[in-house]
Amino acid sequence: MVRVIDVRRSGDRYRGGEPPSGISTLHAFSFGRHYDPDNLRFGPVLACNEEHLAPGAGFDEHPHSHTEIVTWVMEGELTHQDSTGRTTVVRPGDVQHLSAASGVRHVERNDGPAPLTFLQMWLAPLTWDTAPAYSLVRREDLPQNHPDTAVLTLPAAAATLHHLLLPPGHPQPLPEAPLRYVHVLNGEVQVSHAAADARPGAPAAELGPGDSARIGDSAEGPVTLTARGETQAELLVWAMEG
Predict the structure, then answer these.
(1) I need a labelling partner for 178 at 20 to 30 A (CA). Which of 195, 201, 213, 238 fits?
(2) Mapping DSSP to helix (H, G, I), strand (E, B) and coil, where does residue 21 land?
(3) Would you state the torsion angle of the CA atoms of residues 73, 172, 68, 37, taken in this order, to the nearest 10 degrees?
(4) Alpha-carbon distance 79 to 112, whole Å?
(5) In 187-228, at which residue ranges do the beta strands (DSSP E only) sit?
(6) In sequence order, what are the residues at sequence separation of 6 or more whose Cβ sits closer than 8 angstroms to the Cβ of residue 100?
(7) What averages of pLDDT result for each successive group of 10 residues across the chain (242 residues)?
(8) Greatest alpha-carbon span in the chain
Protein backbone atom coordinates (compact mmCIF):
# COMPACT_ATOMS: atom_id res chain seq x y z
CA MET A 1 0.00 0.00 0.00
CA VAL A 2 1.57 3.30 -1.09
CA ARG A 3 1.14 6.54 0.76
CA VAL A 4 0.18 9.51 -1.41
CA ILE A 5 1.23 13.06 -0.50
CA ASP A 6 -0.57 15.38 -2.90
CA VAL A 7 0.75 18.94 -2.51
CA ARG A 8 -1.42 21.88 -3.58
CA ARG A 9 0.11 25.37 -3.76
CA SER A 10 -1.54 28.53 -2.51
CA GLY A 11 -0.81 30.26 -5.80
CA ASP A 12 -2.67 27.56 -7.75
CA ARG A 13 -5.96 28.01 -5.88
CA TYR A 14 -9.02 29.21 -7.76
CA ARG A 15 -9.49 32.96 -7.26
CA GLY A 16 -12.98 34.16 -6.45
CA GLY A 17 -14.95 36.60 -4.34
CA GLU A 18 -15.88 40.15 -5.32
CA PRO A 19 -12.70 42.29 -5.15
CA PRO A 20 -14.57 45.56 -5.93
CA SER A 21 -16.71 44.85 -2.83
CA GLY A 22 -13.68 44.13 -0.65
CA ILE A 23 -13.94 40.32 -0.82
CA SER A 24 -11.13 38.13 -2.17
CA THR A 25 -11.26 34.34 -1.94
CA LEU A 26 -8.82 31.52 -2.64
CA HIS A 27 -10.57 28.16 -3.20
CA ALA A 28 -8.72 24.88 -2.65
CA PHE A 29 -11.50 22.78 -4.25
CA SER A 30 -13.95 23.06 -7.12
CA PHE A 31 -16.28 25.89 -6.12
CA GLY A 32 -18.96 27.91 -7.90
CA ARG A 33 -17.85 28.85 -11.40
CA HIS A 34 -14.49 27.14 -10.78
CA TYR A 35 -15.67 23.64 -11.66
CA ASP A 36 -13.00 20.94 -11.71
CA PRO A 37 -14.35 17.36 -11.81
CA ASP A 38 -10.98 16.06 -10.59
CA ASN A 39 -10.96 18.31 -7.52
CA LEU A 40 -14.40 18.02 -5.96
CA ARG A 41 -13.45 16.80 -2.48
CA PHE A 42 -10.93 14.93 -0.34
CA GLY A 43 -12.66 12.49 1.97
CA PRO A 44 -15.40 14.55 3.65
CA VAL A 45 -13.66 17.90 2.93
CA LEU A 46 -15.69 19.75 0.29
CA ALA A 47 -14.16 23.23 0.57
CA CYS A 48 -11.24 25.06 2.13
CA ASN A 49 -11.69 28.75 1.36
CA GLU A 50 -9.22 31.42 2.40
CA GLU A 51 -11.32 34.57 2.73
CA HIS A 52 -10.02 38.15 2.81
CA LEU A 53 -12.56 40.83 3.77
CA ALA A 54 -11.87 44.55 3.90
CA PRO A 55 -13.42 46.56 6.76
CA GLY A 56 -17.17 46.79 6.17
CA ALA A 57 -17.22 43.97 3.61
CA GLY A 58 -19.06 40.71 4.04
CA PHE A 59 -21.45 38.05 2.82
CA ASP A 60 -25.14 38.96 3.07
CA GLU A 61 -27.62 36.43 4.43
CA HIS A 62 -27.38 33.15 2.51
CA PRO A 63 -28.49 29.55 3.11
CA HIS A 64 -26.61 26.34 3.83
CA SER A 65 -27.79 22.77 4.35
CA HIS A 66 -26.28 19.32 4.87
CA THR A 67 -22.81 20.77 5.54
CA GLU A 68 -20.49 21.02 8.54
CA ILE A 69 -18.93 24.51 8.35
CA VAL A 70 -15.78 25.17 10.39
CA THR A 71 -14.14 28.60 10.54
CA TRP A 72 -10.69 29.59 11.82
CA VAL A 73 -9.89 33.32 11.98
CA MET A 74 -6.27 34.20 11.19
CA GLU A 75 -6.45 37.98 11.65
CA GLY A 76 -9.16 40.53 12.33
CA GLU A 77 -12.65 39.83 13.67
CA LEU A 78 -15.51 37.97 12.00
CA THR A 79 -19.09 38.87 12.94
CA HIS A 80 -21.46 35.93 12.53
CA GLN A 81 -25.26 36.14 12.59
CA ASP A 82 -27.63 33.27 11.82
CA SER A 83 -31.32 32.52 11.47
CA THR A 84 -31.57 31.24 15.06
CA GLY A 85 -30.96 34.82 16.29
CA ARG A 86 -27.38 34.17 17.35
CA THR A 87 -24.72 36.87 16.93
CA THR A 88 -21.05 36.20 17.78
CA VAL A 89 -17.66 37.76 17.07
CA VAL A 90 -14.95 35.23 16.13
CA ARG A 91 -11.34 36.26 16.80
CA PRO A 92 -7.93 34.81 15.86
CA GLY A 93 -7.45 31.30 17.22
CA ASP A 94 -11.17 30.78 17.91
CA VAL A 95 -12.88 27.76 16.31
CA GLN A 96 -16.43 28.21 15.05
CA HIS A 97 -18.61 25.28 13.97
CA LEU A 98 -21.97 25.64 12.25
CA SER A 99 -23.79 22.41 11.48
CA ALA A 100 -26.18 23.44 8.73
CA ALA A 101 -28.01 20.08 8.81
CA SER A 102 -31.59 20.49 7.53
CA GLY A 103 -31.04 24.17 6.77
CA VAL A 104 -29.83 27.45 8.24
CA ARG A 105 -29.18 31.00 7.01
CA HIS A 106 -26.33 33.21 8.16
CA VAL A 107 -24.45 36.47 7.61
CA GLU A 108 -20.67 36.88 7.78
CA ARG A 109 -19.14 40.36 7.96
CA ASN A 110 -16.03 42.30 8.85
CA ASP A 111 -17.45 44.92 11.21
CA GLY A 112 -14.01 45.70 12.64
CA PRO A 113 -11.55 48.44 11.68
CA ALA A 114 -8.85 46.10 10.34
CA PRO A 115 -8.67 43.64 7.41
CA LEU A 116 -10.09 40.18 8.14
CA THR A 117 -8.60 36.86 7.00
CA PHE A 118 -10.22 33.54 7.85
CA LEU A 119 -10.13 29.96 6.67
CA GLN A 120 -13.50 28.30 6.17
CA MET A 121 -13.74 24.55 5.69
CA TRP A 122 -16.84 22.61 4.63
CA LEU A 123 -17.24 18.91 5.40
CA ALA A 124 -19.93 16.48 4.27
CA PRO A 125 -21.88 14.85 7.12
CA LEU A 126 -22.51 11.12 7.32
CA THR A 127 -26.26 11.64 7.85
CA TRP A 128 -28.63 14.48 6.97
CA ASP A 129 -31.43 13.98 9.50
CA THR A 130 -30.19 16.28 12.29
CA ALA A 131 -31.13 19.78 13.41
CA PRO A 132 -28.82 22.78 12.91
CA ALA A 133 -26.29 23.36 15.70
CA TYR A 134 -23.64 25.93 16.57
CA SER A 135 -20.54 26.01 18.77
CA LEU A 136 -17.68 28.43 19.38
CA VAL A 137 -14.47 27.47 21.18
CA ARG A 138 -12.47 30.47 22.32
CA ARG A 139 -8.70 30.50 21.93
CA GLU A 140 -8.21 31.06 25.67
CA ASP A 141 -10.08 27.82 26.38
CA LEU A 142 -7.61 25.77 24.31
CA PRO A 143 -4.15 24.59 25.45
CA GLN A 144 -1.60 27.28 24.65
CA ASN A 145 1.76 26.57 22.97
CA HIS A 146 0.97 22.83 22.82
CA PRO A 147 2.53 21.08 19.79
CA ASP A 148 -0.70 19.23 18.91
CA THR A 149 -4.14 20.29 20.09
CA ALA A 150 -7.33 18.58 18.91
CA VAL A 151 -9.46 21.72 18.72
CA LEU A 152 -12.66 20.21 17.32
CA THR A 153 -14.11 16.73 16.92
CA LEU A 154 -16.89 16.22 14.38
CA PRO A 155 -18.51 12.79 14.77
CA ALA A 156 -21.02 13.88 12.10
CA ALA A 157 -18.19 13.80 9.53
CA ALA A 158 -15.87 11.28 11.27
CA ALA A 159 -13.20 13.98 11.41
CA THR A 160 -11.03 15.77 13.98
CA LEU A 161 -9.35 19.14 13.51
CA HIS A 162 -5.86 19.53 15.00
CA HIS A 163 -3.93 22.76 15.55
CA LEU A 164 -0.17 22.10 15.31
CA LEU A 165 2.69 24.35 16.43
CA LEU A 166 6.08 23.15 15.17
CA PRO A 167 9.30 24.53 16.70
CA PRO A 168 12.14 24.81 14.17
CA GLY A 169 14.16 21.67 13.51
CA HIS A 170 12.13 19.28 15.68
CA PRO A 171 10.26 16.64 13.62
CA GLN A 172 6.74 15.94 14.82
CA PRO A 173 4.52 13.03 13.76
CA LEU A 174 1.35 13.84 11.89
CA PRO A 175 -1.83 12.63 13.64
CA GLU A 176 -2.64 9.13 12.43
CA ALA A 177 -5.77 8.57 10.37
CA PRO A 178 -6.71 6.99 7.03
CA LEU A 179 -6.89 10.48 5.47
CA ARG A 180 -5.18 13.73 6.51
CA TYR A 181 -5.64 17.21 5.11
CA VAL A 182 -2.83 19.64 6.05
CA HIS A 183 -3.07 23.42 5.66
CA VAL A 184 -0.15 25.70 6.55
CA LEU A 185 -1.20 28.90 8.32
CA ASN A 186 2.28 30.31 8.94
CA GLY A 187 5.89 29.25 8.42
CA GLU A 188 7.71 26.77 6.22
CA VAL A 189 7.20 23.03 6.66
CA GLN A 190 8.83 19.87 5.36
CA VAL A 191 6.58 16.81 5.06
CA SER A 192 8.21 13.39 4.84
CA HIS A 193 7.51 9.75 5.69
CA ALA A 194 9.50 6.63 6.41
CA ALA A 195 9.05 5.10 2.96
CA ALA A 196 10.40 8.19 1.20
CA ASP A 197 13.23 8.62 3.69
CA ALA A 198 14.35 5.06 2.99
CA ARG A 199 14.85 5.80 -0.71
CA PRO A 200 18.10 7.62 -1.46
CA GLY A 201 17.44 10.96 -3.09
CA ALA A 202 13.70 10.82 -2.50
CA PRO A 203 12.47 14.43 -2.09
CA ALA A 204 10.40 15.57 0.86
CA ALA A 205 7.42 17.87 0.27
CA GLU A 206 8.06 21.51 1.13
CA LEU A 207 5.07 23.64 2.14
CA GLY A 208 4.73 27.39 2.70
CA PRO A 209 1.94 29.64 3.96
CA GLY A 210 -1.37 28.79 2.31
CA ASP A 211 -0.07 25.53 0.85
CA SER A 212 -1.82 22.25 1.63
CA ALA A 213 -1.19 18.52 1.40
CA ARG A 214 -3.66 15.67 1.00
CA ILE A 215 -2.27 12.49 2.54
CA GLY A 216 -3.66 9.01 2.06
CA ASP A 217 -3.20 5.94 4.20
CA SER A 218 -0.17 3.65 4.15
CA ALA A 219 1.46 0.83 6.06
CA GLU A 220 4.93 2.19 5.33
CA GLY A 221 5.57 4.31 8.41
CA PRO A 222 4.48 7.59 9.97
CA VAL A 223 4.44 10.99 8.30
CA THR A 224 6.54 13.64 10.04
CA LEU A 225 6.42 17.42 9.86
CA THR A 226 9.42 19.68 10.44
CA ALA A 227 9.43 23.48 10.61
CA ARG A 228 12.12 25.00 8.39
CA GLY A 229 14.00 28.20 9.08
CA GLU A 230 14.22 29.98 12.42
CA THR A 231 10.55 30.44 13.33
CA GLN A 232 7.84 28.01 14.34
CA ALA A 233 5.25 26.83 11.86
CA GLU A 234 1.51 26.79 12.48
CA LEU A 235 -0.82 24.32 10.77
CA LEU A 236 -4.36 23.01 10.75
CA VAL A 237 -4.76 19.27 10.12
CA TRP A 238 -7.95 17.32 9.52
CA ALA A 239 -7.61 13.66 10.56
CA MET A 240 -10.43 11.74 8.89
CA GLU A 241 -11.80 8.22 8.61
CA GLY A 242 -12.36 8.60 4.88
Answers:
(1) 201
(2) helix
(3) 100
(4) 9
(5) 188-193, 205-207, 212-215, 223-228
(6) 64, 65, 66, 67, 68, 69, 132
(7) 75 94 96 91 97 96 91 97 89 94 90 97 89 92 93 96 95 94 96 58 78 80 89 97 84
(8) 59
